[in-house]
Specification:
Strand order of the largest sheet: 2-1-3-4-5
Radius of gyration: 13 Å
CATH architecture: 3-Layer(aba) Sandwich
CATH superfamily: Response regulator
Order of helices and strands: EHEHEHEHEH
Number of strands: 5
Largest sheet: 5 strands, parallel
Number of domains: 1
Number of helices: 5
């Protein structure tokens, strides 16, 4: 079974690069280029893990994260923040909003893959809670 990922980022080149690599790694990848689209894709594809940029049009990553935590309680859905915002304020805000991991762009592909693998490895344990 391939795990399903949602990649939400408005930088098309970043999305294309990541999507190709994640598919090569065996993941099923859905993409969204703004916050509204990200929320719609969560409803449609029910991803196992969300990679979420903070700076997106229509609804930013904070708004998307808040809605994920409030409205999608059907299962634990790890959210990895993947953003160019590197300040401590952004990091603290995301963790206070229940983000599961935080990566700052530019980021090594191995760090992204390791974050995804870690979140996936926790899914069975979280399902028992």
């Amino acid at each position: 079974m391939a795990y399903k990922l949602l990649l939400a980022d408005d930088e098309k080149e970043t999305v294309e690069l990541l999507q190709k690599r994640l598919i090569k790694e065996g993941y099923e990848v859905t993409v969204a280029f703004d916050g509204e689209e990200a929320l719609a894709k969560i409803k449609e594809s029910n991803p196992d893990v969300v990679l979420l940029d903070l700076d997106m049009p229509k609804r930013n990553g904070y708004e998307v994260l808040k809605e994920i935590r409030e409205k999608f309680k059907d299962k634990w859905r790890p959210v990895i923040i993947f953003t160019g915002k590197g300040g401590i304020e952004a990091l603290e805000k995301c963790y206070n909003m229940e983000a599961d991991h935080y990566l700052t762009k530019p980021c090594n592909m191995e760090a992204i893959l390791q974050a995804i693998r870690t979140m996936i490895s926790l899914i069975p344990a979280r399902a028992k809670v």
